[in-house]
Amino acid sequence: MDLKDFIISPQEIEARSMEIIEDLLERGDWSASQKQVVKRVVHTTGDPEMAELILFHPQGVEAGIAALQRGANVITDVEMVWSGVNKKNLAKAGGQVQCFLNDPEVPARAREWGITRAMTALRLHQDELWGNVVSIGNSPTALLEVLRLCQEQKKSPALIVGCPVGFVGAAESKELLAEQSDIPYLSVRGNRGGSNVAAAMVNALIYLSVQREF
Questions:
Q1: Is 43 a catalytic residue?
Q2: What domains does the chain contain, in order, with CATH numbers?
Q3: pTM (2 decimals)?
Q4: How much of the chain is in helix, strand and coil states, percent to nearest 5?
Q5: Catalytic residue from among 43, 57, 117, 192
Q6: What does the pLDDT look like over 84-119, one tens digit per residue?
Q7: Does residue 160 contact residue 134 with C-beta atoms inside 8 Å?
Q8: pLDDT-derived band at 66, boundaries 50, 70, 90
Q9: How far apart are CA 122 and CA 106, in angstroms?
Q10: Interstrand relation of 54-56 and 185-188 (parallel, antiparallel or unpaired)
């Protein structure tokens, strides 16, 4: 293959990628909007096997789209998720992305409470969770804290995108998320996930909410 044979236009690369993904996906029982989330995750990871790991609450996609269309913010556990969310398209609906991990109060409070900084950041800013989209891409403890706060405060985000990755608590925290039915969610089975997956799911919802072409 010669260098001139490569596609270098960003728009053409994305369009061709989505065509390939469409061919790779086996026939599933996803709704049209759920399939767009699946395609975005597969595109981001380069892994068609991810399609079979995605978990959808029955109202998950619709709840996320509705929240974003009314100007909901996206709250993330780490800066990597924050960086991956398409802020320009989110702003079209009036929302913004927020990550509180670098709040100067977090380190001292985390030591005082004996919990992770990701948990601490969300606990300190829990009022920002309610009615917004919460996207967890790295920290299982952050997802556990969100679920705990929901139980304690009897409130909930509009949607939880729960995709923590790893071998300690990641699969288990996502199982807890999927076991409850009151809070709409999107998630991934097992140890896999990550900030790129969480951001991809949110971006799919943003694109659907502003009717951007995939």
A1: yes
A2: 51-209 (3.40.50.10230)
A3: 0.91
A4: 55, 10, 35
A5: 43
A6: 999 999 999 899 999 999 999 999 999 999 999 999
A7: yes
A8: very high
A9: 10
A10: antiparallel
